[in-house]
Amino acid sequence: MKLLEIHVIQTVAPSNLNRDDTGSPKDALFGGYRRARISSQAQKRAVRLAFRDWPLLSQEELAVRTKRLLEALGDRLQDLPDGGGRAVENALNALGLGVKEGKTEYLLFLGHRELDRLAGIIRENLEALSGEVKGKKEAKVPEEVKKALERVLDGGKAVDLALFGRMLADRPELGVDAAAQVAHALSTHKVDREFDFYTAVDDLNPKEDTGAGMMGDVEFYSATLYRYAVVNLDLLKGNLQGDKDLALRGALAFLEAFPLTLPSGKQNSFAAHNPPLFVAFRAGEGMPRNLATAFEDPVYPKDGKPLSALSVERLVAEWKKFDEAYGPLRPEWKGAVNLTGVELGDLVGLPNLSALKAKAEEALRALLEV
Fold first, then answer.
1. What residues contact residue 78 under an 8 Å CB cut-off, 6+ apart?
2. CA proximity to 227, closest of 255, 258, 250, 192
3. Which of 214, 250, 268, 340 maximizes the CB count within 10 A of its CB?
4. Collapsing DSSP states into helix, strand and coil, what is residue 344?
5. Are residues 46 and 68 in the same domain?
6. What is the pLDDT of residue 207?
7. What angle do CA 144, 147, 153 make, to 5 degrees?
C-alpha cells in the first residue's frame, strides 16, 4: 500500500472540544486508564471546514453533505418554473434517494461537480421528469434518463469525498470507499474530568439583590493528545478518477489541514487554540502503523519535563522500535516539525510546516508518479 501517515502530539488547554450527548467531553479507556478522546468524525468535519474556508482547493473540487438537495439543485435551476421542483424530486426518486417534506431521507455527500451535472441532466430531460411525484419505489422515469442520472454519481472528483468516502444506504453500488483513515485522538496520559461552576449576574438587578441571574456548570479537561491519520494514495488517486495532480494537491491539503484543525466545541468559553507541538509525516510503500501503543502505559510528569516532551520521547522510541522489528517503508520518506526540543534520532527535523509539506511533496510526487 502506498501511504501518507501523519502523527501529531498536541497539548490543548482546559476545553470541551468534542462532547457527548450529555455535554461531557468525550473519553475512552485505553491501557486500562481513562483518556481524553476526540472522535475521528469530529476531526474529519474540522478538516472539511478547513478545505471550504482555506485557499487549499477550489469549490468545484469539494463536496457538500446535506439533506437539502432539492434546494442545492433548485439553486442551479433558478431560471426554471418552481426551480424545476417536481423534476428534481422525480430525479432523486429515480436514483433511489427518497424525499420527505422537501429533504432527502438522510444526509448525502455529493461533489459540487455531481450536483452541476445532475442539474444539467434534469434541465435536458425536464419534460420526461415532470410527471406526478410517486416516491422512490414507484418513480416512473425513462430508463435512459435513469442511467444518465446514475452515471453522474461518480464522485465528481471531489477531494473531501475521495478522502472520507460516501455511503448510500439505498444504493450501496454508488458508494465511495474512503481513502483516509483517521484515528480517535487519545490523551497520552490519564485524565479526570473537572467541573467549572459558573454564575451570571443580571446587570439590571437592584443593588440590594445580590443573587445570581443564572448558574450552571460545564465539564472540561486538558490533555496532551496523540493524533494519527493515514491516506491510501492509490485509492485516493482512483477515487479522483486517476487525476494524479489533484491527488497530489488533495494529499498536501490534508497534510496541512489535519494537524492545524480541531473541533470547535465550547471554544467561546475556553479558547483552547493550541497548535501542535509535534507534527511528523511518513510516506512510502508498506503497512500503516498507528503509534498509539507508545501510550498504552500512560505518561506521567517527571524530571520537570512537560507531558508534551515526554510524549514525543515515547513516540520517537516507539517509531524506532517498530522500524527495528518490522522494518521501515520501502522506499520511505519522513520528517517532523518538533517544538519540544526532544532529540529525534534518525527522524529528520524540519523548521516549519512549509518545509514539512515540501519534503512530503517529494515523496508524494514519486509515489503518485506525478
1. none
2. 258
3. 250
4. coil
5. no
6. 85
7. 150
314, pLDDT greater than 90: yes
Domain containing 10 equals 2-56+179-188+221-368
Alpha helices by DSSP H, listed for 156-278, are 159-164, 233-239, 244-260, 267-270
Instruction: Tally Cβ neighbours within 10 Å of residue 238.
Output: 16
Where does the chain have alpha helices with state H? 40-53, 69-76, 85-94, 112-124, 143-152, 159-164, 233-239, 244-260, 267-270, 307-326, 353-368
DSSP 145: H
Show the cell assigned to 87.
423534476
Tens of pLDDT, residue by residue over 18-49, are 999 999 999 999 999 999 999 999 999 999 99
- Does 210 reside within a domain? no
Is 197 a residue whose pLDDT tops 70? yes
Q: Is the model's pLDDT at 139 over the cut of 70?
A: no
The β-bridge partners of 117 are: none
In one letter, which amino acid is 345? G
Asked whether the beta carbons of 160 and 48 are under 8 A apart, the reply is yes
Residue 213 lies in a domain: no
Does residue 295 lie within any of the structural domains? yes
In contact, 136 and 170? CB cutoff 8 Å: yes
The answer to whether the peptide bond before residue 331 is cis (omega within 30 degrees of 0) is yes
Give phi and psi for 76, each to the nearest 5.
-85, -10
Distance between CA atoms of residues 207 and 201, nearest Å: 12
